[in-house]
Amino acid sequence: MLSDALRDRPVFATKRARLLELLRTRAFQEREVTLSSGLKSNFYIDCKQVSLDAEGATLIGELFHMVIEEIAPQAVAVGGLTLGADPLATATSVVSWQAGRPRAAFIVRKEPKGHGTGQWIESAGLAPGAAVVILEDVVTTGASTLRAIERSRAAGLTVLHALGLVDRLEGGREAVIAETPMTTLFSRRDFLP
Fold first, then answer.
1. Could you give the 3-state DSSP secondary structure of residue 156?
2. Distance between CA 89 and CA 64 in Å, rounded?
3. Domain count, the chain
4. Tens-digit pLDDT profile for residues 96-147
5. CA 99 to CA 66: how far, in whole Å?
6. Owning domain of residue 95
7. Contact 149, 134 (CB under 8 A)
8. CA proximity to 183, closest of 90, 81, 86, 63
9. What is the sign, positive or negative, of the torsion defined by CA atoms of 156, 159, 165, 168?
10. By the 8 A CB rule, do 140 and 172 touch?
11. What CATH number has the domain bearing residue 139?
12. Where are any strands of DSSP class E within 39-152?
């Protein structure tokens, strides 16, 4: 959950409201879909429609940076499972550099690299024990976030927190918080009554 202190900051509240508007108009659809988990749903949130947009990426990076400064200021990197987390990590890393608190981005592969070292993590040389925050676009079952946490830990990284854009309120949060604390900017309630 976002703290009241952060949620009530005028700059944070304004940027969060604008990001929600972009997600509602560009990413949210009420229609029957099959999710990556295989579950059926009557709504879909395609966050890439916003995270790959210049304004959307900037807002995500700014908001995620502000949240990380509150929940895990000692984090030196942000990343998650490719493909959903890739633009989130890049945006957050760029904003952190601009804010004078640089955090590297990293990518967790879905399959190990097919040649060379066979690594699961792509980064700019994160040291063993590096403190990281796992990023996610939409949390449904939590499987992608859990896979990113597991592979990050196996690579020797210290996972401090998970941070997502939208929690669909379908059990994913509970699964993730069994492994690490989790915060999301929005939930299903922000899109559906």
1. coil
2. 9
3. 1
4. 999 999 999 999 999 887 777 778 999 988 999 999 999 999 999 999 999 9
5. 10
6. 4-190
7. yes
8. 63
9. positive
10. yes
11. 3.40.50.2020
12. 40-41, 44-45, 77-81, 104-108, 121-122, 131-139
